[in-house]
Amino acid sequence: SIAKQQRLGFRRFTTSTTEDSNARLTLLGDLRRALDHGGEISLHYQPKVDIGSGALVGVEALARWQHPTKGPISPGAFIPVLEATTLIHKFTHQVLTEALTQARIWLDAGYRVPVAVNISTRSLLDADFPDQVAALLREINVPGERLCIEVTEYSIMSDPNTAIEALHRIRRLGVKISVDDYGTGYSSMTYLRLLPLDELKIDRSFVQDMSTDRGNRALVASTVELGHNLGLTVVAEGIEDASTLAALSEIGCDFAQGFHLARPMPADAVTDALRRAYAPAA
Ligand code: C2E
Ligand code: MG
Ligand code: MG
Ligand code: MG
Q1: For residue 255, how far is its CA from the centre of ligand 3 (angstroms)?
Q2: pLDDT tens-digit profile of 57-116?
């Protein structure tokens, strides 16, 4: 029976996590130290590119943790650990602060590059979050339009009323809202219409093999159409080869991100790329 399967599943889960939970506790202690002292966690930035013109239209901030003894630890491994505690709020605050400070540096250098920041469910649903965003924009002196927040369908659907109210408050600051990993969650058509959104970001699982998989190509094409009909910009993530980029171009997708175009890189490397792109012709 389903109940029995769930019971067994639950037992398997609890026994196998005894070890896991020790590892998580150690990681959590290390994270607490890293957030207190700084220097270990930094941001890389992955360019977002206009498929038609090839222009850099924005960057996405991606957290990187260089552990002093374990080496690099991916955000996929440490963000869930943070999210299980209130430490996530401190992390989100630090990431927003660093990303906005970098956006300010680029603005001062004459580059109006919008910066996207991934926001975890717990931060989005935190009652103070919209005011925190407002305060940081003011303190760091960045116009709201230069910030985009990426939230997942999962975040929104876990508490739609709270999420929708928060998104409205954030969007009133001029901040852009993007739905990340679109297609992997369960957002209904109704919510998609109710949400204050600017961008849909199609998950890389649909994008990656769309040049060979007709089914995924059809899903991506109809998502692009849906997004456009709702007045949204559509971005594809995870472009790893030229044929995928060509397929996206045919479909009329607006923007793309992926290793084929540019990998996540330190801020200085983005600045170099901006300087080259906007250098006066020699
Ligand atoms: P995401 O927001 O969907 O970010 C895209 C992920 O795909 C990044 O992994 C990026 O490095 C990777 N990627 C980009 N292009 C390609 C490609 O062509 N092929 C492949 N295979 N991968 C590509 P990363 O940096 O490991 O981040 C993983 C996830 O961790 C992110 O997924 C995001 O959900 C989360 N994350 C990262 N930084 C932050 C952060 O500062 N705050 C929060 N809350 N979450 C973050
Ligand atoms: Mg993202
Ligand atoms: Mg994504
Ligand atoms: Mg993704």
Answers
A1: 13
A2: 999 999 999 999 999 999 999 999 999 999 999 999 999 999 999 999 999 999 999 999
Q: Which ligand is nearest to the CA of 260?
A: 1
What residues form DSSP beta bridges with 234? Answer: 200
DSSP per residue, 143-204: -GGGEEEEEEHHHHHHSHHHHHHHHHHHHTTT-EEEEEEETSS---HHHHHHS--SEEEE-H
CB contact set of 70 (below 8 Å; sequence gap of 6+): none
Ligand located closest to 245 CA = 1
Give the number of the atom of ligand 1 that is nearest the alpha carbon of residue 83: 44
What is the distance in A from the centroid of ligand 4 to the CA of 201? 9
Ligand 4 centroid, distance to 256 Cα (angstroms): 13
pLDDT at 6: 45
Which ligand number lies closest to the CA of residue 79?
1
| ipTM for the predicted complex | 0.98
Beta strands in the chain (DSSP E): 41-50, 56-67, 71-73, 115-118, 147-152, 176-182, 199-202, 233-236, 255-256
257 Cβ closer than 6 Å to some ligand 1 atom = yes
pTM: 0.93
- Residues whose CB falls within 8 Å of the CB of residue 36, separated by 6 or more in sequence, listed in order: none
Q: Please work out whether the CB of residue 74 comes within 6 Å of at least one atom of ligand 1.
A: yes
Ligand 1 pocket test: pick from 41, 48, 59, 62 the residue with the most ligand atoms within 8 Å of its Cβ: 62
Cα–Cα distance, 95 to 209 (Å, whole number):
32
Q: Is the CB of 30 under 6 A from ligand 1?
A: no
Average pLDDT, the chain: 91
Which position has the token pair 């995928």? 244
For residues 118 and 207, give the distance between their C-alpha atoms in angstroms, rounded to a whole number: 20
